[in-house]
Amino acid sequence: MENFQFCISTKVLFGKGQIENLPQVASEYGQSVLLVYGGGSIKRIGVYDSIKSLLAGCEVVELSGIAPNPRIESVREGVKLCREHGVDWILAVGGGSVIDCAKVIAAAACTDMDAWQMIVNHAAITEALPICAIPTLAATGSETDAGAVISNTAINEKRSFFSPLIMPKVAIMDPTYTFTVPASQTAAGSADILSHLLEQYFVPQSTFMGDLLVEGVMKTIIHYTPIALAEPDNYEARAQLLWGSAIADNATLCNGNRICPFGVHGMEHELSAYYDITHGVGLAILTPRWMRHVLSDATVERFAHFAQAVWGVAPSDDKYAMAHQGIDATERFFKSIGIPMTLTELGINNEHFAEMARHAVETEGLLYAYVPLTEEDVVAIFNDCI
Fold it and tell me: Which of 148, 182, 185, 363 has the highest local Cβ count within 10 Å?
């Protein structure tokens, strides 16, 4: 078991009606707040009106229109608003993209460095504005982790930024806010959750406890996603997915494991940087192809264990057969929830694969992944996705 430090500092308020605690958040963090959100969904489901009513005594500055792959331009606009209005804290309402954007705003508003340079230089920030996150989609788990991903479409780059200082102080998680999420977004969100779990499961060394915890959450997501798709207002299904998304990516499940760079995420960042596709869809397309590419004598035992523990594949002396059954089951699941499973379906060809692979290896640490990936490996995986 590896050494680790563990501090999830986010106060989670989970369940229906927890937004009523928002005035208490304001009393702790200040009267000037930047409200960050995406399109009109928070207005359609009534969250916007609730927020405006509950924060009637506050100065609420708004930054809307955050894109599904949040842009550096939105970050810079948010930083400008924070400085102009003396914002005390940030309220992020939406999916992971909105929360990620708010996190980088919170950090960049407290430094003289340009936001993009702060990201690419992995700047060690010393301060950030407090954040309260209200997720309206079960996907990234950004509401309880210390990372964010931002796109710079001018140069086709998508970069990650990490700091414990950008972890939200409070997460208000009401499953009813996810009832109206379209089926395609629900499916993509579940694929994102599963990818987070798989990236922490296929590692150089894991613990007995870690395996059981990750397997349990994977099986939970696999069980409840079809229910949420068939019954969008099924509270239990939505609650299980929402909580699963939160704990899938904040180290709760994998303490003691030897964690390594997220290889599939690194490759997907190139796809969504170049083609602005939905992150979870890209992950779903890549995952089974990556699995088949890295399957070898060195990894077959792990894949066979995954097949048995998660998909119920019967034990066999033929570990390769077990592994392939588990990989096939993973791909079938993604197909069953309506995710397109080829890049061709998304209008993507191999035009930029070489430069995408080169950039992924340079910036995402793929040479240090569970199975090290070279540029040639990444191109081969991309081509398998066509």
Answer: 148
The single-letter DSSP state of residue 199 is H
The per-residue pLDDT of the chain, averaged, comes to 96
The rounded distance, in Å, linking the Cα atoms of 131 and 147 is 13
> Which pLDDT tens digit goes with each residue over 153-169?
999 999 999 999 999 99
| Nearest 10 degrees: Cα torsion 213, 217, 220, 221 | -160
- Give the pLDDT of residue 39: 86
Q: Are 4 and 256 in contact (CB under 8 A)?
A: yes
pLDDT-based confidence at 8, cuts 50/70/90? confident
What 3-state DSSP class applies to 102? helix
Task: In whole angstroms, give the CA distance from residue 370 to residue 203.
Answer: 5
> CA angle, 35 as apex, 181 and 21 as ends, to 5°?
80
Which residues are within 8 A (CB) of 28 and not within 5 positions of it... i.e. 6 or more apart? none
The CA dihedral of 353, 358, 362, 364, to the nearest 10 degrees, is 20
Per-residue confidence at 40, pLDDT binned at 50, 70, 90?
confident
Classify strands 170-173 and 131-135 as parallel, antiparallel or unpaired. parallel
What whole-number distance in Å separates Cα of residue 229 and Cα of residue 210?
Answer: 29
Q: Give me the phi and psi of 258, to 5 degrees please.
A: -90, 95
In the sheet that holds 11-14, the strands lie side by side as: 11-14, 170-173, 131-135, 89-94, 32-37, 59-63
**pLDDT tens column, 73-109:** 999 999 999 999 999 999 999 999 999 999 999 999 9
The DSSP secondary-structure symbol of 10 reads P
Strand, coil or helix: 160: strand
Q: What is the mean pLDDT of residues 3-27?
A: 93
* Rg of the chain taking only CA atoms, in angstroms: 20
Strand partners, 12: 171
